[in-house]
Amino acid sequence: MTTRFNNLPTLKVDAGEKVPFTYKGKKFYGAKGDTIATALYANGIRIYARSLKYHRPRGFYSMDGECSNTMMEVDGVPNVRTETTYLKPNMVIKEQNVKGSADKDMMGFMDKMDWAMPAGFYYDVMHKPAKIWPIAQKQIRKAAGIGALSPDYIMPGKYDEIYPNCEICVIGGGPAGMTAALAAAESGKRVILMEVRPWLGGNFEYRSAKYADGMSYNERAVQLAKEVEACENIRVFLSTANVGVYNNNLVTGFQIGEEKDVFTERYVEIRANSVVVATGCIERPLLFDNNERPGVMQAGTALRMATTYGLLPGKRAVFSIGHDLGLEAAVTLFDLGMKIEMLADIREDGQDPELEKAIQARGITLLKGWVAATANGRKQVQSVTMTTVDGTVSRDIECDLLVASAGFTPLTGPLVVNQAKLKYDSHTNFFLPTDIPERMYAAGRLLGYEDGASIEASGRVAGYEAIGDAAKADAAKKALSELPGPARGCKLINAPVKGRKSFICFDEDTTIKNVKQSIDKGFDVPELIKRFSGAGLGPGQFGIPGHNLPLYTAKYQAQPEVKIRPTTVRPPLVPTNLATYAGTNHNMFKITPIDDLQKKDGGIFRNIGVWQRARYFSNDLTCKAEIENVRENVGMLDGSTLGKFRIHGPDAEKALQRVYISDMSKCKDGRVKYTAMCNDDGCVIDDGVVIKNGENDYYFTTSTGRAGQTVEWIRYHTRYDGWDFSIVNLTDSMGVINLSGPNARKVLEKVTDTDVSNEGFGFSEYKEFSIGGIPVRAMRLGFVGELSYEFHVPSSYMKSLWLMLWEAGKEFNIMNFGVEAQNVLRMEKCHIILGQETEQRTNLLDAGLGFLWARKLSEWKKVGAVALRQAEGDESRLTLVGFKMENKHRAPRDGALIVDDKVRGYIATARDSFALGEAVGMALVEKHMSKVGTRLSIFEDECNGNLIYGKVVPMPFYDPEGKRMKM
Amino acid sequence: MALTLTCPICGERNGYEFRYGGEEKGPRPEEDGLTPEKWVEYVHMNECKAGVQEEWWFHRDGCGSWFKTFRDTTTNLEQKQEG
Ligand SMILES: [Zn+2]
Known about the structure:
By secondary structure, chain A is of the alpha+beta class. Chain A has 24 helices and 50 strands.
């Protein structure tokens, strides 16, 4: 491992604390605080990957995730941006997109094949003849693409989400962001400051150069950060990348968790009154031949590698830069022991005189108007061909590091995704934001400021504007106007070379030559070039080509500057894991009060709506034993998922009259009333029972799936009436046990003294009594077609009651039955389940429930009544019928189609019935096919084109007189 | 996406907590003499105004009340009414 600096004030690594990791199967050590990429660099790794198309060697170029050069597979996760991902102990790191290794890639010959692959070659070449495309596609897919993920891969880690509100949200924790936050916080308003790095300070943080007399940039950053941290109304989100900004200042991002955090990553969504964008700049790459060869590095990358991570990026460096930060980097790195072979500034003039003095004092020669033309060296830079900007003079210089940077690119993404426009500014050579939406402000380096005091002052202006303090904002503006304005930007895009190997986009291997080819083919604006050549479509989200592409396009076409247009930026601004968007575990299901008993009894659970319920009690999915035991002995079902409500108050009955289709004034004490709810189209949405407990006091049930919407539904349809009633949702506080079968009464008689004989407690009656001291609301229902009791009890009593009945039922052969057994039992009785025998378009009459409708009560304006009146007698509607199969035991699948020359209906539920000894079911068919005896031809995927046949029969199939449920 | 609504009981809350309940169209019409056209007009036809419209919202993940508010459909911003 290379030696590291260990006493710089800017350092963020602790070289004394070693962090082990595995790379390509071998064990290495990084330092605490390293990114994966810096840890690898410290271990002498220079070739990080091979490029997408040409398999060119790629190395450490940028530090903010602008390109895919350093993407690797980490702990099984592909495409991890190692330059922004911090090293954790025992990480397992692998290379991607290599055949062999990144160092010796067998696909390396592809680099010589570029003549065969002009821009858009797969559109041009591979489609003629058409049959070649599938073969070509297979080969291209094999050769290209980065990272692989197995389909059953489960993302490790914990993902969370957080939705804070604030008055001012500042995006970017650099000097401008911090001064903006501090200015806004003076008002006492709540401020959120989000910063993508794990520390505040931005572009001041890693610089040891002079900020003011007696203070370095780094010291100033620390000072500001302390002020921010001390401010109680600023909440700081570190390691939080901004991903999008939306209408009404909704700011989204994701935060990487630290060791102490309970999350690996979390989604952050901030509702802010005002937003300040102070995201600063990345560097604008310099285009020359082999500009992405390992050993070529951006100025900020080289500087930060030394000052933040303690690593000297090279021993002998050539600098080809176009801005003062590049000069400053050369001075700092020289002081840290780097030999500067050549320092070339693209600019002829305009350098900071103090920096020039510092360069002179160190004996470094500064060449103005010079630029790198070609990086030489097969796998790593060994020398650089330098040239004058006009290309007339050139010189080869040996080196192991080439620091190259043409200028800066403002990070305007957060503004642009929130609909701000960009306009080319000739002075800065930036695309600057205009038409910024209301209550959104920009500050700092992204506006072109390079002077430290100006950066801070512009932050203060934005901060005061964001809180709407005009007086303070005006004063801050005046202060800013007295400081240096935006710096003049270097305009050079590419060195004077033809550009066959000058890469404008690293991720997609797009060269200057490809851009020319695209333009020559007529794709003459960046939006089209991007799609035709692929430039900017890679994981770097336009970080490398975003600025150069529109500049170059305009230059190549000799366009006036005003016409230059960058491509549209869309969220996510930074690649985000789907797992982070998914957030916390949304697979949460409710369990019934006797969930554990059902599990112990061997229940096989399924997710049903928001619940988990026992669907089967054996591996026999026909449930023969469960069904037969209910028909012959007695079974018990956990029905706790049923919706349960109390409605009471002076106008409770009125509300029921509105939403239920029957005449609710006819609810009688001690009786169970079965009824249904429709929507305004007359379609059935719910059915259940209503029990009158007193004047304007009712207990009612809804189907499992409707329980969540019932309160909303009733209040919606009574919202204009001003009726006085209350609804209480008792669904979770009450449990339900269904005791069914010919022996049910014998079981019940053993546990209660109440008269539960057929005379004392008849069919369709309601009774309240106690079982072993437990208050029970009991109903006699017949859903499964046998003698049946339904007990509603407070959830806390469910277990006791269940065990009591179970004990009493042992001698009568009591058994569990699950949801599927119940489904078959009720189907044999032709009792419908909404959603099974009905779909969204099925109205009350179609479902055969017309008898429930009190059609004359128009004064109640019953929901659904108007539509039902209109649908009456409509011959074009589907209607519910029962059917038997011609082939006795061949039940069609639920959902199979009924056809002749066209589709005439579909199967709702069908099963091979044990009680009847043949396959029966219910179907929704066109009215003309509903007559008893009609032959139904049924199509299903499994029938291999051979239709199967059934015929319409009267309903119900089982015990048509209903004697068994009334016994 | 960034909708914020003011519930008369709970105050200003995240739009995710609410369910949309349609445009304000007045109470259900009397059923006597109601033509199918008029009924469909009431139930299904909407103005879909590009601008400020009065509409119903339900505070689903809150107090459970239905209330009316004004929203500018072009900006998705609630328009608070005076008084
Ligand atoms: Zn509320």
